[in-house]
Design a protein that fits this description.
Blueprint (H helix, E strand, L loop, with lengths): L1 H14 L4 H42 L2 H42 L3 H16 L3 H18 L2
Helix pairs in contact: 1-5, 2-3, 2-4, 4-5
Length: about 150
């Protein structure tokens, strides 16, 4: 059965190559949305720091009865407030993709980027399980794009 999957993976690997124009467009899209990705990364780090601070600070500064409510409120506020930049960056990425790249490529650049990423990971995978996983993800994004 593993041999059957290996044959599928290698056939997907051989048949599904992106042409150089699409590769160039994906690279250009990556550079264009890099600042948005940085904001999202900072927001993820801020979420962790906010949750830790929300747990530790109320326990040190407040009475036990109030600390519980402050901790729960702080955790919810940390998660909610740091989620806003992530949602905004995703919205802006899709807006850039929709207005600038979709008329040229006909597909969402986010899906095309994920497709390319999984094709590259599938090529460099060391185990059969990794190749199968990235093959399935690549075929999922290929289906999402309608190719």
């Amino acid at each position: 059965m593993a041999m059957l999957y290996q044959m599928q993976v290698t056939s997907l690997d051989v048949n599904d190559k992106l042409d150089s124009k699409l590769e160039m467009l994906i690279d250009q899209f990556e550079k264009e949305v890099a600042p948005l990705d940085r904001w999202a990364r900072v927001s993820v780090i801020a979420t962790s720091a906010g949750v830790v601070a929300s747990v530790v600070l109320p326990l040190l500064l407040l009475s036990p009865a109030v600390a519980l409510y402050a901790t729960i409120g702080g955790i919810l506020a940390s998660i909610g407030l740091t989620r806003i930049p992530i949602l905004y960056s995703n919205y802006k990425k899709h807006e850039i993709s929709r207005t600038k790249y979709r008329p040229v490529t006909g597909v969402c650049m986010c899906d095309l980027y994920q497709y390319r990423t999984h094709l590259h990971k599938m090529e460099s995978a060391k185990t059969t399980g990794e190749r199968i996983r990235h093959s399935k993800l690549a075929s999922y994004y290929k289906q999402q794009m309608g190719l």
